[in-house]
Amino acid sequence: MPIKFTPIANKPEWAGSSWEIASDDALAKLVARVALGQSHYALRVLRETGFIGPKAAATTLPGAIALLTAAKPKDPYHRDGWLFQVISWIAAHLQEPDGLIMEPHMIHAHKGFDGLHVRMNKTTGGINTVVICEEKATKNARKMVRDHIWKEFEATEKGDSDHRLLSEVLVILKSRGGIDLDKAIEQLVWKSARAYRVAITVTDGVDFEEVFDGYGTVVSGDIARRRSEVLPVKDMRAWMQSIAAKAIKHAKELAGAHV
How is the chain split into domains, by residue range? Predict the structure, then answer.
């Protein structure tokens, strides 16, 4: 398992986990698969002991390298943002192995939800919960949460993004197959069917309570509606660059590039 999880909470405000990267190399291999368009194989690596997976088509390598490369090396936040969203997607599958989770975006600076998780009711066939995710690689977690993420959650709670939410949820449900779409989405109009998940990089030793202060005001209701996930890193930009470099190396190996 490339990521280990330690529970954290500030009850009744929020609950979640702190992530520890158990192996940079194992994580980079999974990131490389996703960058090459092989997220389905990345999932099999996570779920099946000993699964190695096939090589990748050489034609997928340039695009993968572009995703893993900062267009502006001195200002790599778009690359790092995409990379962290992939890491968050990996973490989500480790936490919910059978979850219906939106595939990672394959462009930098995608306009839309960072992530969506759909939890189904096995008895009724309807949706229990749609988890709306904000996943950010940042040097200033509190500022990002206070000035950006809370505003996004407030807008979603008001219903400002309902049209996009419905569209994205339908894409996720269609990818699984065998689901009665009308029955599945009939509960989606109710605010109680929505939950939220913040995944964010933080500096070592940061006060998690301070980072997520105000969560209960922005998103009311049961604590289950407010999930907080943190990745403590000493030097976020340098670490992201290291993971990207390792992933490029693995991508080249998977595509059979002789470099």
Answer: 8-254
| pLDDT mean over 205-211 | 96
pLDDT of residue 258: 43
Six-digit token string for 27: 């994580």
What are the pLDDT digits (tens) for 54-104?
Answer: 899 999 999 999 999 998 888 899 999 999 999 999 999 999 988 899 999
Predicted model pTM? 0.94
Residue tagged 């997520």 (tokens): 212
Do 111 and 96 touch, CB atoms closer than 8 A?
no
Quick: pLDDT tens for 151-166.
Answer: 999 999 998 888 888 8
Residue 53: what residue type?
A: G
